[in-house]
Amino acid sequence: MQSLMSEPPKCCICLEEFSNPASLPCGHCFCLGCIGEYWRIQGSCQCPLCKAFFPTRPQLKTEQTLLPGRRTEEADMPLKAGEVLCDFCPGKHRAVKSCLECLASYCDTHLEPHYRSEDLGRHLLISVVKNLEDSVCRLHGKQLNRFCRSDQTCICAMCSQTEHRGHHIISINNEATKKKVKLKRRRMKLQQVIQERLSRVEKIKLSLDLSGENPKDAWTQNKELIRQLEEEISELQSRNTELEQLSQTEDDLHFLQVCVIAGSQ
């Protein structure tokens, strides 16, 4: 049985093996990303363990020699659906955070300055998004995290207190959930219409096979009707595929933005 003493050291914030360990002046060590996020959320520089308070952001000592192969192994793994590449990596590693101030996405290594620098530490970091410019309010430069149902548009927190003050406003996630439920009902009705058209075509073709002495004349008479029905079926199936792809959109903001554009056309 492996001794507890032989287990690799772990960060007490994420409870996982250290990723780019960083030591504080008090001596405690954390993942650079973990302590950087902790300070950003808390709004002050304090050790999570001993509660030592630092009036200014301290110089962190990183120990990149620990777990040297882990960064390479993670970087070499193929990108999964929805993952984004770092904007500054020559080797194109996957990004772990996006910055709304810099309008860029960063891997662990290139994100370091945002956790080391006091000025960059004030920037708003969010989960990685593909189209970063589309996630920021063009008027206020803030993250689009609300939806105005009155105007059917995505807005930021500042918009809700100014241009959209008094409007019916809910979170992006709640609105996306509501719209996805409606989208599912719409697809079910669409599939029902498709099935009805297919059944009608089959009935017409079957009646032609049993039409008696002049099947050629009967076919000529119904040929145009069958053609029209098959065109309708093709268009309905194409629309159903579009709605299915839209319903599978994981990014709620992007999903709503597409819905708003589609609704205005």
TrEMBL record:
A single Gene Ontology MF term assigned here is: zinc ion binding
Annotated keywords: Coiled coil, Metal-binding, Zinc, Zinc-finger
| Family matches, as SMART domains | BBOX, RING
Positions of the B box-type domain: 132-172
Q: Which residues form the RING-type domain?
A: 11-51
Q: Which InterPro entries match?
A: E3_ubiq-ligase_TRIM/RNF (IPR051051), TRIM8/14/16/25/29/45/65_CC (IPR058030), Znf-RING_euk (IPR027370), Znf_B-box (IPR000315), Znf_RING (IPR001841), Znf_RING/FYVE/PHD (IPR013083), Znf_RING_CS (IPR017907)
Q: Which residues form a coiled coil?
A: 219-249
Q: What is this protein called?
A: E3 ubiquitin-protein ligase TRIM47-like
Q: Which organism is it from?
A: Cottoperca gobio (Frogmouth)
Gene encoding the protein: LOC115024023
